[in-house]
Specification:
By secondary structure, this protein is an alpha/beta fold. It has a single domain (about 1-235), classed as Spore Coat Polysaccharide Biosynthesis Protein SpsA, Chain A (Alpha-Beta Complex). The chain has helices at about 35-45, 55-65, 85-90, 110-120, 175-190, 195-200, 225-235, and strands at about 1-5, 25-30, 30, 50-55, 70-75, 100-105, 110, 125-130, 140-145, 150-155, 165-170, 210-215, 220.
């Protein structure tokens, strides 16, 4: 199994904190956000990581090579990071969507146990979901029974949703074939500024995608200054 991390974004909503620093290098609990992912990946024995970089990429690449030198890295540059989103970033690295993967956004803080529970799930393809009431900003999922997801996106009706997809997923090699094609279709249709979850939704009718309940673990996606402050308190 390999890892795939999305870390290209500008993170304007965290200005001025991200003027000169990639979001994933902001500190939470006295260490950069990305350390949580890297330490969790390392604890599972995964050695190969593909990372989409863009904004302040030189700083991030140097940090990772200096502090996590045991990994084999594939750095893929999204040169259009100012005007695109995670779907475009993931599509830029489509050549590495060809194996069993752990996919994650670089701005999520969580303990190692969360990733271990996801990896050990009986499901070949599963999304980590924090079961809770959600607002408009969260990427939400709807439960179809038997841990199966039947809808995913930000625009779903909050009261019908199970909880928030936290941006960490286990993807099978077979699923990645469908996912890569769906990402290509999305980009070709003009979805340059879409989140990658928009490419998952069309696959739900073709392939079973399940969820793993991770609400027992503290976890936070850092989008706003308020999120950063809350995460620093939580961790």
């Amino acid at each position: 199994m390999k890892a795939f991390i999305l870390a290209a974004g500008v993170s304007r909503r965290l200005y001025p904190h991200t003027y000169n620093t990639p979001k994933c290098l902001l500190k939470v609990g006295n260490k950069p956000i990305i350390d949580y992912q890297m330490e969790a990946i390392k604890s599972l024995g995964i050695t190969e990581i593909s990372i989409i970089v863009g904004y302040h990429r030189e700083i991030l690449i140097e940090y990772l090579r200096d502090n996590f030198s045991s990994f084999n890295y594939n750095f893929i540059v999204n040169h259009h990071y100012f005007e695109t989103n995670t779907a475009f970033s993931l599509h830029a690295g489509k050549e590495f969507l060809n194996d069993d993967l752990i996919l994650m956004n670089a701005d999520v803080v969580y303990p190692k146990g969360l990733l271990r529970k996801l990896i050990n799930s009986k499901h070949e393809t599963a999304l980590a979901v924090d079961i809770k009431s959600c607002g408009r900003e969260e990427v939400k999922v709807i439960d179809g029974g038997a841990d199966r997801i039947v809808a995913i996106g930000k625009e779903l009706i909050e009261t019908q949703c199970l909880g928030e997809f936290i941006g960490v997923a286990k993807l099978s090699k077979d699923f990645c074939k469908y996912f890569s094609k769906s990402l290509g279709d999305l980009i070709e249709s003009g979805g340059l500024n879409d989140y990658f979850e928009a490419a998952i939704h069309p696959i739900l009718e073709k392939k079973d995608i399940h969820y793993v309940d991770v609400s027992e673990f503290p976890c936070m996606e850092i989008d706003f200054i308020e999120d950063l402050e809350e995460a620093r308190t939580l961790f």
